[in-house]
Specification:
The protein is an alpha+beta fold. It folds into 2 domains: 134 residues, TATA-Binding Protein (2-Layer Sandwich), CATH 3.30.310.20; 166 residues, Hypothetical protein, domain 2 (Endonuclease III, domain 1, Orthogonal Bundle). Helices cover 39% and strands 15% of the residues. The chain has 13 helices and 10 strands. The strands form 3 sheets. It has a 6-stranded antiparallel beta sheet, covered by helices on one side. A two-stranded antiparallel ribbon has the order 1-9. Strands 8-10 form a two-stranded antiparallel sheet.
Length: 315
């Protein structure tokens, strides 16, 4: 049992631009900031993201068109407007068509969580001593998902065993070094480097971004598997192969499940934030163990990941 998704207005092309209006089935609010890696920007209530979709550059935008209405738009970009900070990054060779624009909107709808129906989650836990007050105070809260599972996987590897500020700096360095960008200037919109590109980097190149060498090797290994089609991070069956890679553990695939696949029950129990939080909420007088985190959130199945997301408000 998981989240339900409610799709509303159909796509409509507007002079080569695809646009859709969504009426979220549960209280919703667009994020007010773009995220740690800087690839999505939110200015004056409009969230903007550059995506490479099947090798085509697409500019996506989302904004709240009125109470209970969110509009998303995808427009094709001239490949000539895309710059590569490095020859290794490559430049898209063709303009997006209707299929690519539709896929871009689908992935941004997923990332922004506009279609998520949290009604069952709310009904089951609105009387919960911990979650009830938080659900009433922040019903619009959503996990910060990624449009592509690859991004969730890559950034989970980057974040392993380091504090969030350092991880964000590494992400931004990688995006600036290898991510294609819109326009010639460094401050232009960037995209996350593709698995093909990361697979082609030497471990020492990745290490130079700030990664520990062991994690650089792991990131390159999983990128090579994804690029070669040996592993689809969007499918749970991929977890067994991922866990066989040295330096990839349960926390990584749990982050992938929550942020890359939208699994509401995926709980990154080894996250330092949850170890500290459960230690405080359970009045342990110390950090909790991974097992204690899992035990604490077990009553919230099959929404453990969502429960942990909401409970961070109390941290």
């Amino acid at each position: 049992m998981g989240l339900k998704y409610a799709y509303t207005s159909p796509l409509r092309p507007v002079g080569g631009v695809s646009e859709v209006e969504v009426r979220p089935p549960f209280p919703y609010r667009l994020p007010s900031y773009g995220g740690e890696d800087g690839v999505m920007r939110v200015q004056r209530g409009v969230a903007t993201r550059l995506l490479q979709v099947e090798g085509c550059p697409v500019l996506t935008r989302a904004w709240e068109a009125g109470k209970g209405r969110v509009t998303l738009r995808a427009e094709p970009l001239d490949p000539g407007s895309i710059a590569a900070p490095s020859p290794a990054a490559g430049v898209p060779a063709r303009e997006a068509g209707p299929a690519e624009l539709e896929l871009a909107l689908e992935r941004m709808r997923f990332a922004l969580g506009v279609d998520d129906d949290l009604g069952e989650f709310y009904r089951r836990f609105r009387g919960d001593p911990l979650l009830g007050p938080l659900l009433r105070r922040r019903p619009h809260l959503r996990p910060r998902r990624r449009p592509w599972p690859w991004e969730a996987l890559a950034w989970a590897v980057v974040k392993q065993l380091i504090e969030s500020g350092r991880a964000a700096r590494i992400q931004r360095r990688m995006v600036g070094r290898w991510g294609v960008r819109l326009g010639p200037r460094r401050e232009g919109l960037h995209d996350v480097p593709t698995p093909d590109l990361i697979a082609g980097r030497a471990p020492v190149e990745l290490e130079s971004m700030g990664l520990a060498l062991k994690r650089a090797i792991a990131l390159r290994a999983v990128a090579a598997d994804v690029a070669a089609g040996r592993c689809d991070p969007g499918e749970p069956v991929a977890d067994e192969r991922l866990l066989a890679v040295r330096e990839i553990g349960p926390w990584t695939v749990q982050c992938l499940g929550l942020f890359g696949r939208g699994d509401p029950d995926a709980l990154p129990a080894g996250d330092l934030m949850y170890l500290k939080q459960v230690g405080r909420l359970a009045r342990l007088g110390r950090r909790a163990t991974v097992e204690e985190v899992e035990e604490f959130y077990a009553p919230y199945a099959p929404f453990r990941g969502l429960a942990a997301t909401w409970s961070t408000i109390a941290a």
